[in-house]
Design brief:
Elements lengths: L1 E5 L3 E6 L12 E8 L7 E9 L2 H12 L4 E7 L1 E5 L5 E7 L43 E3 L10 E3 L3 E5 L7 E4 L1 H8 L8 E5 L1 H4 L6 E6 L10 E6 L16 E6 L4 E2 L4 E10 L22 E7 L5 E3 L9 E2 L4 E6 L7 E11 L2 E13 L1
Parallel strand pairs: 16-23
Antiparallel strand pairs: 1-14, 2-4, 3-4, 3-13, 4-12, 5-11, 5-14, 6-13, 7-10, 7-12, 8-9, 15-17, 17-21, 18-19, 18-22, 20-21, 22-23
Length: 361
């Protein structure tokens, strides 16, 4: 029942059409292919680079995940898309060479060369991206007379898209994170690109633009860790049908960015059975069944921030009540969020939407 997000420490886009231009401060990460005016016989390509802190990765694993198995996902949120093929694949590879983010933007005049570009991985460098003599398991892709475009490990994770699917990227990168944390490979971040067969296919010109870390929106890229630490101990007083009331406990309404909050759920009969007791009949707590889950929605935009998941947002229960934990890391500050609760009760899916709202500060 655990999801933890970290933000990138740097990102930039490599543009083949402007081979020495740095775009480290652009609000958009460009992922595109089009006709080239500078090199008419070739394609004009753009590929994003994104890097997350090794210390942040280590902290999540050592402090919270421990020895539990986990999955890590690189998530990017779509800004706009044009000319997208009906079927295509995005690939994420670990970057081989280190690179600088820089302080440039694509359309700066004069050209800004303070960081990574199509030709160079670092600022104002005479050292190019490697285009030959790659170490085992490493490759790159470049265009004749316009060498560059990054270097990366040949291993990849991918995500396939079809017509009318959501174009937000959610690419699993678990083994890459393992390798970076264990220092089996250097953490130089990820490069994201379409498959080579599409990237150099003259039949297609397309644009996939994603929000960058500098977009000043609620949609920067994130690295999302997911693991299952749920448990369920009750054997009695589990609701199966009938009328009952559900309320959220421990909601202070405001939480600090990066804090951790455990929420508890109170469940009781709406109309308790009449009986002789010495206390209130409304104090006896019941439990939602083990097939219960939570979700988080941005209160203003209605965007789903964390969706219901049968494994990673599963609600636990101890001898006192149902409970779950939310890691506020990765949630945008100065935003209001709404919690939803879903249970499968008597074979029926029930969603409790009772304006459980809090703000991250």
């Amino acid at each position: 029942m655990a999801i933890y997000k970290i933000f990138p420490i740097k990102d930039a886009t490599l543009h083949s059409e402007s081979s020495t231009t740095n775009s480290g401060l652009d609000a958009v990460l460009y992922l595109s292919k089009g006709a080239s005016s500078a090199f008419p016989s070739q394609s004009a390509c753009a590929r994003p680079l994104i890097q997350f802190s090794t210390d942040d990765m280590n902290d999540v694993i050592s402090k919270y995940i421990g020895t539990s198995s986990y999955q890590a996902y690189l998530k990017m949120y779509l800004c706009d898309a044009v000319g997208i093929p009906t079927n295509f694949t995005l690939e994420a590879h670990p970057v081989y060479q280190s690179w600088d983010m820089g302080t440039g933007k694509l359309h700066d005049i004069p050209i800004n060369t303070t960081g990574a570009s199509w030709s160079f991985p670092t600022a104002n460098s005479s050292s190019y991206w490697i285009t030959s003599g790659f170490p085992t398991g490493v490759t790159g892709s470049f265009i004749d007379n316009n060498s560059g475009g990054g270097t990366w490990y040949t291993s990849s994770y991918s995500q396939s898209f079809q017509t009318f699917t959501n174009l937000d990227a959610e690419i699993e990168v678990t083994s890459f994170v393992d390798s970076m944390v264990s220092e089996s490979i250097d953490n130089n971040g990820f490069i994201v690109k379409t498959s080579e067969s599409l990237e150099f296919d003259s039949n297609y010109n397309y644009t996939l633009n994603y929000f960058s870390r500098d977009s000043n929106t609620i949609y920067p890229p994130v690295l999302e860790f997911r693991w299952n630490d749920s448990f369920y101990t009750p054997t009695t007083n589990i609701v199966g049908n009938g009328l009952f009331l559900v309320s959220l406990q421990n909601n202070k309404g405001n939480f600090k960015e990066g804090s951790i909050q455990q929420f508890r759920i109170s469940v009781r009969d709406q109309y308790p059975v009449r009986q002789f007791v010495t206390g209130s009949m409304f104090t006896g707590n019941k439990f939602l069944p083990s097939s219960s889950y939570w979700s988080l929605v941005d209160y203003k935009t209605k965007d789903v921030v964390i969706g219901f998941d049968d494994i990673y947002t599963k609600i636990s229960a101890d001898s006192t009540s149902n409970l779950f934990t939310i890691y506020m890391s990765g949630l945008e500050p100065s935003r209001y969020y709404k919690l939803l609760i879903k249970s499968i009760i008597g074979g029926q899916e029930i969603i409790f939407d009772q304006d459980y709202i809090f703000k991250v500060e």
